Amino acid sequence: MSLSFGRSYLAIPGPSVMPDAVLRAMHRASPNIYEGELHDVTASIVPDLKAVARTAGHVAIYIGNGHAAWEAALANVCAPDDLVLVCATGRFGHGWGEMARALGLAVEVMDFGQTDPIDADKLEQRLRDDTDGRIKAVLVCHVDTSTGVKSDVPKLRTALDSAGHDALLMVDCIASLGCDDFAMDEWGVDVMVAACQKGLMTPAGVSFVWFNDRADARQPARVSGYWNWRPRASPAQFYQYFAGTAPTHHLYGLRVALDMIKDEGLDQVHARHAVLARALWAACDVWATQGPLCLNVADPAHRSHAVTSVRIAEGQGDALRRWCEHTAGLTLGIGLGRQPESAYFRVGHMGHINAQMMMGVVGTLQAGLIATGTPHGAGALDAAAAVMAAG
What Rg do the C-alpha atoms of the chain give, in angstroms? Predict the structure, then answer.
């Protein structure tokens, strides 16, 4: 018997749950794109995007997903045959490197595996070895969505500075922005990319590149008119924000989402995500005492507050996901790039999520473990509830 009839819950690591207020803002007729309200709304979004990134630098808005932001960032700071160093902690780190290769860049990958953060000491040594200064940029994922690994970005900045290397530090915050603490200027990040469909709680389709003056000074002699971030960040006319027609309804939704973040307060947003993540981890720790389930990242300091990757036994990850979705109405993320993929599932806990929603996830997972015959320890719901109660 299916118990899934009712409002389903999409607990994948993006697109995330969209607030009703965002959906209401988007449910409207198309506006005048040549003057009036839309222009004011767009202008108001720019400073708030900078505030979420904690930067006084620049931001360019693109109609596209996170992959578009990857390409835009690279196109504005690198020329063909430039060398970029990719520090990978999962599938998406490698994906950014693949994007760089497709643009004709030389790519070197330092693979730190799928369970541990980037080792800043190893990065520093590699940069010291680059005596000719061939490396133009270091590409890292703050959080790799496929693994839930969170790297210490300030330590990576220190590694570049200690090595005396002038490579740009470019950070993918697609999974983490608006969920995990991030401070672009304070942490010394030159370029950062993100998208609207995760912590920013807006339907997929818009992405962003933040950059400082140092990065802008590296712009190559040729960059396509579409990807060029300068007219987007400092438009003389409204259409230059988007190199054409604006993503009108996304802008109305994003305006409301940014208002919700401001109303709650960014520090409180981060604190809420931390508590909800710890509640899930507490439940997983209990389940792990008498069964195959384990968290992908052992050290809580290296786990994201936006997404958690979990392993059980081969085939059981897929079985649990299917039971949760088709019987209970809870959709979990696939293993994505893990081996064996059928052993893993991911829980997205990003954006518009609260305590009762997370307790619903934990309770449904508990039921799914029972239904699929997966051994597990008892008391997970009590452990998660205790974390919620402590706040």
Answer: 21
| Residue 3 counted as domain residue | no
Number of domains in the chain: 2
pTM value > 0.85 = yes
Length of the chain: 391
Asked which of 242, 262, 282 is the last residue of a domain, the reply is: 262
Distances (CA, A) of 172 to 26, 216, 218, 338: 27, 17, 19, 20
Which residue, among 266, 263, 237, 207, has the nearest Cα to 71 in the 3D structure? 207
pLDDT digits (tens, 9 = 90+) for 343-387: 999 999 999 999 999 999 999 999 999 999 999 999 999 999 999
β-bridge pairing 83-88 and 135-141: parallel
Could you give the CA distance from residue 137 to residue 295 in angstroms, rounded to a whole number?
32
Residue where one domain finishes, among candidates 213, 240, 262:
262
Comparing CA positions, the residue from 316, 329, 332 lying closest to residue 370 is: 316
Residues 22 and 202: beta-carbon distance below 8 Å: yes
Residue 1: pLDDT band with limits 50, 70, 90: confident
Q: Identify whether residues 218 and 186 lie together within a single domain.
A: yes
H-helix or E-strand containing 224? none
For residues 166 and 172, what is the distance between their CA atoms, to the nearest angstrom?
19
pLDDT, one tens digit per residue, over 111-154 is 999 999 999 999 999 999 999 999 999 999 999 999 999 999 99
